[in-house]
Amino acid sequence: MKVSTYLSAPGVVCTLGDTLQEIASRLLAGDSSGMQPVTGRVADSVLTCGVVSTSLPAVPEHLQHHDTRNNRLLMAAIAPLQPGLQQLAGRFGTQRIGVVVGTSTSGILEAGEHLGRWARSGELPAAYSYRQQELADPALFLSRWLGLQGPAYSISTACTSGARALLSARRLLQAGVCDAVLCGGADSLCDLTLNGFTSLEAVSTTLCNPFSVNRSGINIGEGAAMFLLTREPLAGHEPVLLAGCGASSDAHHISAPAPDGAGAIQAMQQALKDAGLQPQQLDYVNLHGTATEHNDAMESQAVSRLLGSAVPCSSSKPLTGHTLGAAGALEAAFCWLMLQSGYNPQSLLIPHLWDGQPDAQLPAIRLAGLQERAERLRWVMSNSFAFGGNNTSLILGTSG
């Protein structure tokens, strides 16, 4: 028997802000003013990046070997979730609450800085700990910091990591392994990813321009988004179901998506089937929309073939940058905000920020305009696609 699963109000920190009201206001207004020029990270380059400017909490002294910017982003995101988490722990016990975190960087920022010092001086700084850069570290840190005793693990499937964390958390609930799961994703800006994507010639020095004929690559961003996933809705907000999840791994190429979008279509089809929906029932699609030549070509093919050209779509990447392992969870949080009348009383769609110059080589899809209102907002899809042909599609919906 299928078990319904509900997403709590998310905890979010990103370039749009660190409170849900601020983030919703700037998101629905298409405000990209938080995107900043970044120098000194890639030689001879000024990059446009999504930088978190809010103050981040300090890691407790007894957990200093977990002290990374990635974990501090998680601490900031989780702060508003802690009252609900405490209630769930009191009801079910800490051993019945799991932690699943998606990331692609973990503590590589700090490891790179520390190893750079070692290369220059022959000495590692006292703060260096190999455990910081382990991909499992964010989930282990949260479980130790919060005193949770359920399953705790990280997922690292590149740009689908955050979405996969929600999918995996849902399976823990459906299998009866947990009664609640703290889940989402986090990634911090670091030299490794900035230089790596630059070497792939996939980075735009100006604001990214998804689905435009003039697109020239991604902007990298940082952030964290976390949810409590439960079988019953938590009080305080309109209930939002994680209604459908789909995933595929077509393994087309190590860094390029399958041009025909077959793997992406498979993930979307699975999510629709899981949610019991037909394509025409979707009210909005949050596109992966990285503004690279190959992703946008593939995704427009996939969306056009499966969903047609009627459903409104947009990419939120020009507003936050591509937050890599956090992106799938962050964009699920944006979809959650869209579905809340308290944060979106006018039923606005997330606007697609671009130069308005379509690529004639791409199938036409309907890109949402600024201040565009939906006649209905009940079922929304969020897509995430990653290196290695790893694809994930989530469907969020209201229960009314």
UniProtKB/TrEMBL annotation:
Asked if the Swiss-Prot or TrEMBL record annotates the protein with the keyword Transferase, the reply is yes
Q: Which GO terms describe its cellular component?
A: cytosol
Q: Which keywords annotate this record?
A: Transferase
Supply the name of the protein. 3-oxoacyl-[acyl-carrier-protein] synthase-1
Which GO terms of type biological process are on file?
fatty acid biosynthetic process
Q: Which Pfam families match?
A: ketoacyl-synt, Ketoacyl-synt_C
Per the record, the similarity remark reads:
Belongs to the thiolase-like superfamily. Beta-ketoacyl-ACP synthases family.
SUPFAM superfamilies in alphabetical order:
Thiolase-like
Q: In which pathway does it act?
A: Lipid metabolism; fatty acid biosynthesis
UniProt keyword Transferase, yes or no: yes
- The Ketosynthase family 3 (KS3) domain covers 1-398
- Taxonomic lineage from the root: Bacteria, Pseudomonadati, Pseudomonadota, Gammaproteobacteria, Pseudomonadales
From the UniProt record, which GO molecular function terms apply?
A: 3-oxoacyl-[acyl-carrier-protein] synthase activity
Q: Which SMART domains match?
A: PKS_KS
- The protein's organism comes out as Thiopseudomonas denitrificans
NCBIfam families, sorted: PRK09185.1 (NF006618)
